[in-house]
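As the work plan foresaw, the team has encoded backbone shapes as discrete tokens. One protein thus recorded appears below exactly as we store it.

:::
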Amino acid sequence: MIEINTRSHFGFIGFGLIGGSIAHAIRNLCPDSDIMAYNYYETKPNERLELAKKEGTLSRISTNLADFSDCEVIFLCAPVIKNVAYLQKLYPYLNKDCILTDVGSVKGNIHKAVAELGLNSQFVGGHPMTGSEKTGYTNSSADFLKDAYYLLTPTEDTQPEYTDWMKAFVNAVGSVCMVLDDVSHDRITAGISHVPHIFSAALVNAVAAKDSNGCYKKLAAGGFRDITRISSSSPEMWENICLTNPDAILEFLNECIDILEQAKAAISSRDSEALTKFFTDAKTYRDNI
């Protein structure tokens, strides 16, 4: 069994809800570890990073990517498009023995960038299937990782010991580890994460367009709140996800639109049997989740 304390120098590029939660978990597991985060402002302090340092989550803050050359594990925790941009800037300073991972909800784009830079042997893609509609370091907690699935997407050339270390890390923070290839990952997350966010936003926007006097908002109860809670998530993050996983999202979105058209037709024709089947099929599958 690989111990996670075989590595003690950690770097973070992007330090919001997920990055902060991972850093909290590392600090709990390895109290003496060196945890550094990048201040992308460069010329002015980053209040969130300063708070994390004051609280002891971070050991240091850097405005120079060259400082990441001594890191043994680097977590890319920015929005998925920015992760690729940072990877290209970080590339000249990467230690060949460093494990490179990310937390993005899309894997195809980062895997492509990693391959183009010749970093396949060092990369273990990661995606903690957790979070909140609340964003930022101030809402982070090691508890966010507990009992959640944490997906890993190593490349075909990833060094086995690097994948083993990441598996040990995932287990140590209390998550449930699952290993997938990047293509399967993006197809699955399109269905269970990406398209639901689009549906949620579409419903909110449709209601908002009709809510001229505020009555819809005032009367919105549990059902509306439950299905639309995720619309309070970061718009930038979801824009990035849609732009980087378009094929899988569109495939699933088209299937859902077909089903909605069938439901629309059943309602229009007062087809009781079709409507009962529509809701029964959904209940049966949902009750088994």
Notes: The chain has two domains: 4-180, 186-287. The first helix runs from residue 17 to 29. The radius of gyration is 21 Å. Residues 52 and 58 are 6 Å apart (CA to CA).
